[in-house]
Each structure stands twice: as C-alpha cells, then as structure tokens.
Write a structure and sequence with these properties.
This protein is of the alpha/beta class. Helix content is 30%, strand content 25%. It has 6 helices and 10 strands; from the N terminus they run βαβαβαβαβββββααβ. Strands 1, 2, 3, 4, 5, 6, 7, 8, 9 and 10 form a 10-stranded mixed beta sheet that branches. The protein starts with a strand and ends with a strand.
C-alpha cells in the first residue's frame, strides 16, 4: 500500500531527530508498504528548515502564515493558522494514496501503534481511526477528542461515559472528533478539508462527518505528547 504521512513543523529543531527515528522505525517494521512523507515547514526562527532539508530532502515544502507562535491554548487565531498549513499538506496527497497518516510532529509513538491503526483502516475499512493521546500518565487531548455526544474526553478514567458502553465488534468506539493523530483512508484525505478553519482538526473531523465518513477510537492504542 501507499501510505502518506503528513506533519507540520515550526521551531521544531529540538525534536526532528526523534521524528526521523520514528519514521525510520515504521519503515523497518513494515517494508511491504510504500511510505511517502508530506512535511510542511513555515515561520520558523531556528534551524528547523535547514535540518528538515538535510534529513528529508525533497519531502519538505513551505507554508508560512506570518502569525504569532502559540503554546497549547484554545485560540481561534491559532486554529486558523494550523488549518491554513494543514490544508497545504492535503493538497499534496496523490490520487493513488491508500492511507493518510496525520500526526503532529512533536508526538512520541511506536511503529506498532501506527500499524495497528493502519490495519483498522486497510483490513476492516474504517474511514478514520485514532489512538488516545497521553502526556505522562494522563490523557492529554481533552480539546480535540470528543464523544458522539459532543462532550470532550477527560484526563482520567473512564475518560468518557461512552467508553463504559460495549465497543463495536472490532473493539472501536465511535467519536465526533479527535486531534494529535488520525489514520484515514486516502479518499477521506482527498475530499475533506479544515472547514471550519476556526476549529482546525476538529473542523476537519466535522467536515468528514458531513460527507458521511465515520470516526472511531481505539482506546487500547496510545501516542504521547511531550
């Protein structure tokens, strides 16, 4: 299969080597797949672009919005900037891409996690599937990950009341949106957009749902925010 991996970078010099190690680990773990990197850098003031160009060559393009740098805050300007850059990633997805892996560049993850997510999509036909995103010992993505009822997942078990219900036959729980890491069929990535842009990845998930795609969570899988 052809699997595209998309990530965006800004002032990311400190963790680019970790990102490279994870990508290399995934390629080694699944040599049967053709992995394509769709990396976008913009507005950096450190050595991010030079290092990306050195390590990833022609996989990197530029998309600069000229806006301020934010931390982990819920801010409309931040989300609009994120949507603008991620749209430039989507524009590079080719017609023959089978799977698109959206992953924030600073996350820590294991190849086995990504391959399990890919299997949900490739083997069982799931439109979009996501893992939990933790920071240390608590669930971190309390903004993006939302249940079907629209309520956000919390930091600690049971995280959301919907997880107390029986899962689907393949162990998944339907969700309304997610952030951090999403694995989806290529058709989803080619037809959906970050709309409304004010909601960034949550807006993308809303757009996907409006087009009839379903989003699912595998609560047994985890990625980590530094």
């Amino acid at each position: 299969m052809k699997i595209a991996i998309g990530s965006i970078f800004r002032n990311s010099e400190s963790y680019i080597y970790r990102y490279l190690d994870q990508i290399m680990g995934l390629r080694v773990a699944a040599p049967q797949h053709d992995f394509e990197l769709l990396l976008v850098e913009g507005d950096s003031t450190d050595g991010t672009r030079a290092l990306l160009d050195c390590l990833f060559f022609d996989a990197v393009t530029t998309c600069a919005h000229g806006g301020p740098l934010f931390g982990s805050v819920d801010n409309t300007v931040r989300w609009r900037q994120s949507s603008f850059v991620w749209e430039s990633v989507l524009q590079r997805i080719s017609f023959d891409t089978d799977i698109f892996l959206y992953v924030e560049s600073d996350l820590t993850w294991q190849p086995e996690t990504m391959l399990r997510l890919i299997e949900h999509t490739s083997k069982y036909g799931v439109d979009v599937v996501v893992p939990m995103c933790f920071r240390s010992d608590y669930h971190y993505d309390t903004w993006g990950l939302r249940g079907v009822d629209g309520n956000s997942y919390g930091c600690y078990p049971p995280y959301h009341k919907e997880l107390l219900e029986p899962p689907s036959p393949n162990g998944l729980f339907q969700i309304q949106s997610a952030g951090s890491c999403l694995v989806m069929r290529g058709a989803v990535a080619r037809t959906c957009h970050f709309d409304p842009a004010d909601l960034a990845i949550v807006g993308f998930c809303r757009n996907a749902a409006e087009q009839g795609y379903q989003l699912w969570l595998d609560p047994t899988l985890k990625v980590y925010h530094p």
